[in-house]
Amino acid sequence: MANESFAAAKVNLTLHVTGRRADGYHLLDSLVVFAGTGDRIRVSESESLGLTITGPEGAGLDAGADNLVLRAARAFEVERGAAIELDKQLPVASGIGGGSADAAATLSALARLWNLPLPAPDAVLALGADVPVCLAGRPARMRGIGERLDPVGGLPEGLALVLVNPRVAVPTPAVFAALERRDNPPITEIPKGCDATDFALWLAVQRNDLEAPAIAIAPVIAEVLAALRACGGLLSRMSGSGATCFGLFADLAAATRAARRISIEKPGWWTRAAPVLSAPAA
Ligand SMILES: C[C@@](CO)(OP(=O)(O)O)[C@H](O)COP(=O)(O)OP(=O)(O)OC[C@H]1O[C@@H](n2ccc(N)nc2=O)[C@H](O)[C@@H]1O
Ligand SMILES: Nc1ncnc2c1ncn2[C@@H]1O[C@H](COP(=O)(O)OP(=O)(O)O)[C@@H](O)[C@H]1O
């Protein structure tokens, strides 16, 4: 029997770099949400383990053993087969965690197919710092390098995002290496039960500490932010280590209008409007 999992785009609404571990990894404080746009993983029974990749963003992505989908399958540490299909819709290496979302969706789908428990938390984290939060699939405050998760409730209903990627790959290690400070303050208490405007006012006094170093590496990110701001949303910021930026909107209709405008102005950019998910999508 086949089954499918949705691999939603991860968006870091805040991303504070608060310290650095002895191994060089940076400590983060991030409010993470998921957007209703993403990849799809489909798994079905097979004697051997194999991956096929389809979809508009699949070209150039290697389906070999290093693909995060196959690494996730091996994390179960069992000699089982499965035919895995990845429908790749999210740009690769773009700050919205596509690879991590694929790994998490593979873990969920194979746990169902093989009727096995998920791998241990350390094995999940070893696949990538964003894999635990992608497995949770709902709004969370993420700390440490990604292992410390606290669910976040009470965000305004109906929020939507426009995600824009200028088709420039920004290497994550280079962005962290270009940080000027690594001891920034954490985020302040996340408001609960407020409306979209007040939530955006809170977000505006938080940051993505990786935004300035990413812009220094890829100045086009500043153009993306300017294009989003020109659409009049509640807030615009970069996600993760870039280059994808998001615009936050009070509802999906406003986000869809903004996405249409940016798609017309910049047809070469990857632009999507999507709701903020309050719970994992099927
Ligand atoms: C920055 C974040 C925020 O959600 O998102 P993305 O930009 O990947 O979407 C993540 O922490 C990305 O975590 P992860 O996906 O595991 O990062 P990788 O690409 O494997 O990391 C590549 C390299 O970046 C540096 N790195 C990464 C994470 C971290 N907390 N500190 C670091 O210093 C390390 O040099 C690491 O070897
Ligand atoms: N299934 C996958 N999808 C995307 N990237 C993958 C996948 N498997 C391995 N990778 C590798 O992981 C790296 C990070 O990709 P991705 O998770 O898309 O980045 P980001 O977290 O910045 O959005 C890329 O360099 C890519 O080559």
Question: What's this, in brief?
Answer:
By secondary structure, this protein is α+β, with helices and mostly antiparallel strands.
Q: Work out the count of structural domains.
A: 2
List how many beta strands DSSP finds: 11
Strand content: 25-35%
Helix content: 25-40%
Measured between the Cα atoms of the first and last residue, the distance is: 17 Å
| Shape label | globular
Please identify, by name, the CATH architecture of the largest domain.
Answer: 2-Layer Sandwich
Spell the H/E element sequence: EEEEHEHHHEEEHHHHEEHE
What is the overall number of helices? 9
Tell me which ligands are bound. 4-diphosphocytidyl-2-C-methyl-D-erythritol 2-phosphate, adenosine-5'-diphosphate
CATH class of the largest domain: Alpha Beta
What fold name goes in the CATH topology slot of the largest domain? Ribosomal Protein S5, domain 2
Mean pLDDT rating: 97
| Main sheet overview | 11 strands, mixed
Outline the structure in words.
- Strands 1, 2, 3, 4, 5, 6, 7, 8, 9, 10 and 11 form an 11-stranded mixed β-sheet that branches.
- This protein has 2 domains: 3-150, Ribosomal Protein S5, domain 2; 153-277, Alpha-Beta Plaits.
- Helix 1 (68-74) packs parallel to helix 2.
- It is 29% helix and 28% strand.
- By secondary structure, the protein is α+β, with helices and mostly antiparallel strands.
- 4-diphosphocytidyl-2-C-methyl-D-erythritol 2-phosphate (SUD) binds at residues 12, 15, 24-26, 28, 30, 95, 97, 100, 128-130, 145-146, 172-173, 176, 240-241.
